[in-house]
Amino acid sequence: MQKAYTLILVDNDTRRRSGLSHTLSSHGMHVEPFETVAELATCWPCNGTVLIHDSEGDVALLIEEMARHGEWYPIIAFAEQPDAARIVRAITEGAVDYLVWPINPRDCRPYSKSTMARPKVSAACACGRLWLAGVSKS
After folding, report:
1. What's the distance, CA 125 to chain centroid?
2. Which domain covers residue 33, as residue numbers?
């Protein structure tokens, strides 16, 4: 029997959180819903991926709480009609993916801690190559 994938859902919109929890559960995911990052901080799950509605500063706040607790989870942020700057900010703050609402449950795939590191390593390598390319042209 396949073990259910845990998704830690953080969204302060009760209706959206409820509907999303129901939809994701029907696709074989175990959803642990929280209204806020503060509520999540009172009861850290054992594992999973955080799916968080990207309200102003919530991704950064989640990273701060994870650092305070020493618990690290992959973060997928989502919002309605985000602009490019908002997506870049969330990724720079620590999200490994960004989804546009409404969400397709297939896009909420599991991320392992090793998967989390790959985009950061790739980005760091790309920055290093760009920096080195700029130095070599000087």
Report:
1. 22
2. 5-111
Q: What is the pLDDT of residues 74-109, one digit of tens each?
A: 999 999 999 999 999 999 999 999 999 998 887 776
- pTM of the model as a whole: 0.77
Cα–Cα distance measured from residue 93 to residue 38, given in angstroms and rounded to the nearest whole number: 18
Number of structural domains in the chain: 1
Residue 137 domain-assigned (yes or no): no
In a domain, 133, yes or no: no
- Which CATH number belongs to the domain containing residue 68 in this structure? 3.40.50.2300
Classify burial at 34, counting beta carbons within 10 Å of its beta carbon; exposed 0-12, middle 13-18, buried 19 or more.
buried
Percent of the chain with pLDDT strictly greater than 90: 54
